[in-house]
Design the sequence.
């Protein structure tokens, strides 16, 4: 299409938008609701992901070493573990640190503290706390430590126990719940988004239905389809841009309220999240609005062009 | 210019809208197509504009078989024909100026051509003072004159006026007819459908009478007989 044709289409789309006051307003309101639902989907996913990552972060395995295990060997194992692709971090606690922690934890328990003092020497061994990059990797790390690998035969002699198997059932259940709630959350929000999109599509379809006589006249005057369809698509894009602007402005007070009143409950401050991810949210909302407006208009006009 | 060969159009089997119609309209003619409501006048208009397809028969515009052209080429055909309807069919969200300019825009005219020709044509139909008014702000006669301005702006070879006086009082009806005659005098072919006896008698040109989908009379002397 020529530049002048494109210019005319854009101008005509803008004029249509201005002159269709009430219809434009209704379309923008409905589209704003849809974009708000999409925004809530983004925030919901953020809250869910943040909570789930916190839960997953609490899962770890601890390797307890025999009392008197050579520190060199323990450190050798630690650096070996750190180099494994599945391992995110391996934190070493010396026998003294373990004892200090034990004493702090049981400071109210006089009998236990006395018992430790009676023993005289430190009865506790060093520990390595391992966090995996992915929760599903714990089993293979545990197996690796238990001597499945030929590399570790010497080192296993210093290991007293690995707590993975005691916690396995809880870890597995936790991970299943996390995965299922992520899937369910995604499906519920997807369902809401689809419904909102359908409502917007129908509103735009109604707006264009009002213009069906006009489309017929344009065809009789000899306008090509692209020349009829173009201005409606431009108007749809303007609905998207205006609705996005309203949505992005509305999200400031809404997320501020959630940030102030629900930050503890949600584990995340939505206002800070919104502000720090503003450009990303802007991109998603603006693209969703414009694409929704343009495609809805395209489909709605096509119906009258094919008659 | 227009040739209808054995054209039939059947919407329902019992009463065909057109029944083996043969009609030839030469360039420069002013032809009035008369008949009662439902006689088939508008069906002929729709067939020429490629809005409907004939059940059988051929419709030619010059050497172009109207119903063999591809759908993407239909706009090009329609730009060669100016149309005026009883219900005006104006673009309600556009001003008088924009309604006329729209027909030029779709024909690919430049902004300069549009800016110089639209006021001139609106002046020709005596609407200079209404240039920035919307159709709902115009009277019936003004609306129809605006429709005529839009129809003639691209200097089409043919103007089809489908019951253009149907919604007008006698004075405005005569004004519309006067403008159509003037356009015809300048060489444009006119096909007028109407059932208004006064209008036909005042034109004094060829009258084709249609009844129940058949042409029953074709008079050169221009009298309304039904």
Sequence:
């Amino acid at each position: 299409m020529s530049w002048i044709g494109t210019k005319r289409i854009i101008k005509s789309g803008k004029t249509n938008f201005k002159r269709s006051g009430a219809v434009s307003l209704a379309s923008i309101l409905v589209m704003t609701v849809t974009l708000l639902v999409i925004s809530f989907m983004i925030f919901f996913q953020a809250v869910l992901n943040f909570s789930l990552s916190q839960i997953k972060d609490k899962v770890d395995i601890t390797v307890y070493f025999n009392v008197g295990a050579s520190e060199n060997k323990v450190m050798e194992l630690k650096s070996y573990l750190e180099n494994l692709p599945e391992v995110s971090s391996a934190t070493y606690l010396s026998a003294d640190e373990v004892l200090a922690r034990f004493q702090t934890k049981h400071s109210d328990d006089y009998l236990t503290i006395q018992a430790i003092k009676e023993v005289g020497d430190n009865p506790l061994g060093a520990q390595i706390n391992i966090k995996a990059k992915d929760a599903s990797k714990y089993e293979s790390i545990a197996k690796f430590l238990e001597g499945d690998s030929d590399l570790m035969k010497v080192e296993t002699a210093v290991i007293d126990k690995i707590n993975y198997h005691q916690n396995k059932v809880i870890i597995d259940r936790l991970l299943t719940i996390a995965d299922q709630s992520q899937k369910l959350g995604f499906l519920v929000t997807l369902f809401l988004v689809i419904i909102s999109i359908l409502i917007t599509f129908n509103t735009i379809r109604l707006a264009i239905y009002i213009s069906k006589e006009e489309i017929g006249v344009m065809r009789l005057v000899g306008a090509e389809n692209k020349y009829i369809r173009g201005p409606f698509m431009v108007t749809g894009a303007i609905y998207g841009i205006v609705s996005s602007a309203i949505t992005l402005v509305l999200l400031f007070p809404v997320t501020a309220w959630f940030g102030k009143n629900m930050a503890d409950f949600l584990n995340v401050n939505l206002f800070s999240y919104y502000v720090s991810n503003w450009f990303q949210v802007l991109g998603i909302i603006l693209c969703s609005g414009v694409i929704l407006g343009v495609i809805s208009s395209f489909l709605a006009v096509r119906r009258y062009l094919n008659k | 210019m227009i040739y209808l060969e054995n054209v039939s159009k059947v919407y329902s089997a019992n009463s065909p809208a057109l029944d083996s119609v043969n009609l030839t309209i030469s360039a420069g003619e002013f032809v009035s197509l008369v008949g009662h409501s439902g006689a088939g006048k508008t069906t002929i208009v729709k067939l020429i504009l490629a809005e409907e397809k004939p059940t059988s028969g051929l419709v030619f515009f010059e050497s172009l078989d109207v119903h063999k052209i591809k759908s993407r080429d239909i706009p090009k055909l329609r730009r060669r024909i100016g149309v005026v309807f009883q219900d005006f069919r104006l673009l309600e969200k556009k001003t008088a100026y924009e309604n006329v300019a729209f027909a030029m825009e779709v024909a690919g005219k430049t902004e300069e051509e549009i800016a110089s020709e639209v006021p001139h044509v609106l002046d020709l139909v005596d609407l200079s003072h209404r240039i920035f008014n919307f159709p709902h702000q115009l009277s019936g006669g003004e609306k129809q004159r605006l429709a005529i301005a839009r129809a003639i702006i691209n200097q089409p070879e043919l103007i089809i006026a489908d019951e253009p006086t149907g919604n007008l009082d006698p004075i405005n009806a005569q004004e519309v007819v006067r403008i159509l005659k003037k356009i015809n005098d300048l060489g444009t072919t006119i096909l007028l459908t109407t059932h208004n006896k006064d209008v036909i008698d005042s034109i004094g040109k060829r009258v084709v009478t249609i009844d129940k989908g058949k042409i029953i009379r074709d008079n050169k002397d221009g009298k309304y007989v039904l």
Summary: The mean pLDDT of chain A is 84. The radius of gyration of chain A is 31 Å. Residues 3-55+175-305 of chain A form one domain. Residues 164-209 of chain A form the longest helix (46 residues).
